Amino acid sequence: MLHPLSLCPIMRVEELIAGLDGIFPFSYALSWDNSGLQVGDPAQELTGVTVALDPNLRTIEETLKCNTNCLVTHHPLLFRSLKRISAADPVGEAVFALAKNSISLISLHTNLDVAPGGLADRVAKLLEVEVEGPMMLEEDKGLGRVGYTSSSFEFYELLALVKESLNLKSLRVVNPPPYQEKRVWKIALCPGSGGDLVFAAASTGAQVYLTGDLKYHQATEALELGITVVDAGHYGTERPAVDLLAETVRRIVDDGVFVNEIEGEDPFQEV
């Protein structure tokens, strides 16, 4: 006689990978990127999935605490070429921790950024932006989004919406408009590190560009181009990836597979 538990379906890591690939295809990742299975055994049975922004030791520890054996992140752990794996450096230490504890790591990076319904579209939705299309094409893939606010706002009302939607206390702004009238804004956005795309954003005719990690010379470029840039930070613009990935994983896995979310925190602190 079969034990009742033997009738429960078994879901494996490779099935989760296939499900994610069907929604946010790994083929959409840019050529310089490294998305997909980073560490682990595709044939491993899933006991649970933890979702986080970053694959660091803290998230690995949390994965262990909640008895899950698969970690799904936006940022990849293995990004640049490695000549050695040493426990003396953070990447090597994380690889050892994952392998030692039989935790598989799957990352969805630029494929999540560019795919329809991915991170850029999620941020646009949070900001009530009606998307017209990608901000630009890179390797024939749509990077960022451009569209119009669904309602008329004063600029500082728009900033309040950004802070509320992305759960931020502060923003950095370059070239704020001097006028106060309510208007529908054309917005270009690129979650994450999009400072080097200021010219591309301005080329769309957008009045406002929302991104993160803006540098000084990129800010002066924005001034010269006459576009307003709102720097909401790398973490601030990518934190919605956690909710998006957790929702997606729950759609794929069996009901009996527990899915845990780790909010994480911005490494930059206001003082």
Describe the structure concisely.
With 271 residues, this protein is of the alpha/beta class.
Describe this structure in words.
β10 (186-193), α7 and β11 (208-212) form a beta-alpha-beta unit. With 271 residues, this protein is of the alpha/beta class. It is elongated and about 60 Å long. The strands form 3 sheets. A 6-stranded mixed beta sheet has the order 5-8-10-11-12-9. It is built from 10 helices and 13 strands. The chain starts with 12 loop residues before the first helix and ends in a 10-residue tail after the last strand. The chain has helices at residues 13-23, 57-65, 90-100, 110-114, 119-126, 155-166, 198-203, 216-225, 234-238, 240-252; strands spanning 36-39, 48-52, 70-73, 104-107, 129-133, 136-138, 141-143, 145-149, 172-174, 186-193, 208-212, 228-231, 258-261. The model is unreliable at 1-7 (pLDDT under 50).
Beta-strand content estimate? 15-25%
The main sheet orders its strands as 5-8-10-11-12-9
| Rg | 20 Å
Instruction: Tell me the major beta sheet.
Output: 6 strands, mixed
Structural class comes to alpha/beta
Count of helical stretches: 10
What is the CATH topology assignment of the largest domain?
A: Udp-n-acetylmuramoylalanyl-d-glutamate--2,6- Diaminopimelate Ligase, Chain: A, domain 1
CATH architecture of the largest domain: 3-Layer(aba) Sandwich
Fraction of residues in helix: 25-40%
Give the name of the CATH superfamily of the largest domain: NIF3 (NGG1p interacting factor 3)-like
